[in-house]
């Protein structure tokens, strides 16, 4: 996509600190990091949401994220992937963050608004979703 910043990075129109590249995947340092070693892993196939990306273009993503964890020496870290503006996706191209969490002030800060347990609702959801998986 012509206006996509990540597609421009893939094409080489915008420079990046490239950590890994293959025919389907690119990994590079985030220029607005939350912590030292914060990196992005992206498929070269353009798609806004995870469901837009063919499986074969996702096969390397987690192994590369794992290699970044090892390479940076991160002992605690988050692997994050957002889909849609409401889910905090800022760039409309699928991307995975590897964010080291070295201490309470650096890295990803999140809250976890846990819902109350309702086994009847969970069972109904299970019955709805399980046949589709």
TrEMBL record:
Entry-linked CDD domains: HINT_subgroup (cd01277)
Family (UniProt): Belongs to the HINT family.
Name listed for the protein in its UniProt record: Adenosine 5'-monophosphoramidase HNT1
Required co-factors: Mg(2+)
SUPFAM superfamilies to which the protein is assigned, alphabetical: HIT-like (SSF54197)
InterPro entries to which the protein is assigned, alphabetical: HINT, Histidine_triad_CS, Histidine_triad_HIT, HIT-like, HIT-like_sf
Record's keyword terms, sorted: Hydrolase, Magnesium, Nucleotide-binding
Every HIT domain range: 5-108
Name of one Pfam family that matches: HIT
Catalytic activities: adenosine 5'-phosphoramidate + H2O = NH4(+) + AMP
GO biological process: nucleotide metabolic process
One function term, GO molecular function aspect: nucleotide binding
